[in-house]
Amino acid sequence: MYTLETLVRERSDAGRGPAEHRQWSAPCPRCGAALSPWEADRCGCTGPTGPLNSDLLYATACAIGFPQPVARLVQHARVRYGKDISSRTASAFLYRDPRFCWAGDRRYGLYRHGLLPGPRTLEQAARLTLLAAAAPLPVTTVASWLRGLGYAFRERSFRVCVHRSPWTERLRDGRVRICPDASERDLLRDLVLGPEAGEAFWQVLRQDTAERLVAVTGRANGHGPDGDTLSTWRVVGHSPDWSAC
Q1: Which of 35, 52, 130, 155 is the 20 to 30 A CA-CA neighbour of 207?
Q2: 128-149, pLDDT tens digit by residue?
Q3: Which pTM value belongs to this model?
Q4: Distances from the Cα of 78 to the Cα of 47, 57, 75, 90, 105, angstroms
């Protein structure tokens, strides 16, 4: 069985902290930023990588160190590149472009900002977190974890999204988990990182998310939520090289 306990020990032996981002591909050789698979070999740190509005917005996001509201991204793009893009048009581009990570209502950033690639709603962000954790978690823990990554939302809205999700169930003690009979393929189907991203990519994302969950929530001491042992936080398989995807 390959568990997070094994993972943390391996990373400690390798001299890496448990909260460090796992590299899915080589970092940008110019700015050193961590890149998602959709950004590989085309980081926008030196300017737009193409003529599209989404390329201008991507280059703008690369120059900013944290998630931004759509209106702020549009404003920065206008100042930097002299291009007027309406917030409505920008929102449509940002939503569809997998290089961008959704960070809350009308907010976007990049993987280098610490966000999760794929989710476009609160429910999806919570679902991805619970699927990676592979164990029941209090809703407050999931909310705190996502806020720590840079997501902005209202607590009440988050609870409603999680409890109404067809993919989660609430336990008697108040914790939530992924429905046991839900298939992993169905859970990922409507995410940007869905089946086309490949099994190897999902395993890297799962392992990285689960590992950082342990670090951020202070459970690297061998205990999970409410005293669960860390061995219940299973990570399926070893992390493959991204180049194999």
Answers
A1: 155
A2: 899 888 889 999 999 998 998 8
A3: 0.76
A4: 13, 10, 5, 12, 22
Structure confidence by residue, pLDDT tens digits, 40-75 = 778 999 999 888 999 999 999 999 888 999 999 999
The yes-or-no verdict on residue 78 having pLDDT over 80 is yes
Q: Which two tokens stand for residue 215?
A: 């670090």
Average pLDDT score over the chain: 76
* Vertex 47 angle, CA 46 and 48, to 5°: 140
Predicted pLDDT at 193 = 56
Residues 6+ apart with CB under 8 A from 114: 21, 149, 150
CA dihedral of 113, 42, 23, 32, whole degrees rounded to 10: -70
